[in-house]
Amino acid sequence: MAVNTRILKAEFEYFTPDNFHKALQLLDQYSPDVKVIAGGTDLLIQMKKEVISPRYLINIMKISDMSFIKVKNGWLRIGAATKWREVVEFCAKDRKYAALYEASSSVGKVQVRNMGTIGGNLCTASPAADSAPALLVFNGRVKLANMQRERILNLKDFFKGVNVTAMTSNEIMTEIQIPSIQNGMGSAFMKTTRVGADISKINCAVAVERQGDLCTSCRIGIGAVAPVPMRIQEAERIVAGKRVDTSLVEEMGQKAIEEIKPITDIRSTTEYRRQVASILLKDVFWKAWQRAGGKE
Amino acid sequence: MKKKTVHFTVNGEPHEVLVESNALLINVLRDELGLTGTKYSCGTGECGSCTVLVDGEPVLSCLTLAVAVDRTDIVTIEGLAEPDGTLDRVQEAFLDHGAIQCGFCTPAMVMMGRDLLNKNPNPSESEIREHIKGTLCRCTGYTSIVRAIRSCSK
Q1: DSSP A109-142
Q2: What's the pLDDT at B31?
Q3: Contact B64/A7, CB-based, under 8 Å?
Q4: Which of A84, A99, A171, A254 lies at 20 to 30 Å from B76 by C-alpha?
């Protein structure tokens, strides 16, 4: 059935708490029929299409301590309600975060990066979320809170399925944390899309460390090729601890094809995703590898 | 649904509007304030036609709740020209370069051109293309649009 996207038919109560404690109280009070809204670039589309119809919306964009980006004791900490534009601006200044810079600057378009937030991207839990592969290769964690407690989850344990996360309906994501990155680690992110500003068909990030030709560590994050963004550790193990050459990287690409579980949808077929994921991974690997060797 | 009073300025003029919580900014601008220069097209964040500036940054008014822009400063295409009708340089350039076909994307293209030039007075062609990447022209008139924005660089 055609949906009139000109209007938002859904009816709901809307709250704009100005502090974090109030937001948690409201969540607790109205759970499970409540959704947190940040940029709204995913949520409002789902509501227009009547995929979801929460009765209560809590806008967190007026809570100042949910939007920040800073390095503390070597850890990068990003408030969940930090807009893409701010993530891009911060990461542009430090090439340590190259994969996150490339991922965040590739999200949507200028308008979407002015609205959408990095926490919203994760909480929507699209298999194609562009922030996920980059945060996965940096061993990112997320901090969640409800009225009773705070907890920290590794990002790889956060995604549970298509649009499903480990969060409960009275929890809120407060921040994203990235452990300190070794000097000399090289990282990169790339994706393929149908047209310029579209959801990724496949996205991929790699972070590597090397000593000369020897790959001392390798992490690969890949999205839109399984129900959740994932690390592909068998492919990682092909190169980690070995002398890197073209045939080894070729082998890594082949292993990736075995590890991913892509579907056919409006953007790509399973077969296409298998073939192109392998090629994309090899390209991203070489870019990260060059960077780890001190070359741009 | 309880109605809420929202205060914002649009093109320099203060407004107080009473809105339902599900009212979208685009519809408040078009239907309540009569500012029909901002266009509705896809409604799902694909096309960029509904772009307006909120606190100086371009956003999609079809995916913005009116209640979320309380106490902000909004600029629409109607706010670019001087009060005496003198067009903005970007608008003039679109006319000079014939950067308009059906005209439906034009308000958003002009807003994106203005936004880019505000931040980067001398953008390259690739910077222009990157900036208008998510603002779609179904007539595919991109070459003239890029040329028009380029001609405004210092």
Answers
A1: -HHHHHH-BHHHHHHHT-TT-THHHHHHHTT-EE
A2: 97
A3: no
A4: A84
In angstroms, the CA A283 to CA A60 distance is 38
- Quote the ipTM score: 0.96
Residue A213 counted as domain residue: yes
- d(CA A110, nearest CA chain B) in Å: 6
A196 vs B51, B67, B133: nearest CB? B133
First and final CA of chain B: distance in angstroms? 50
CB contact under 8 A, B112 and A110: yes
Pick the CATH number of B89-150 from 3.40.50.720, 1.10.150.120, 1.10.10.10, 2.120.10.30: 1.10.150.120
Domain span including residue A39: 13-59
What pLDDT does A196 receive?
Answer: 64
Distance CA A60, CA A37 (A): 6
Decide if B135 and A109 are in contact by the 8 Å CB cutoff: yes
Task: Name the minimum distance, in Å, from the CA of B60 to any CA of chain A.
Answer: 6
pTM as predicted = 0.95
Interface test with B, best of A13, A109, A117, A194 (most B CBs within 10 A): A109
Residue ranges in chain A whose pLDDT is less than 70: 1, 196-197, 296
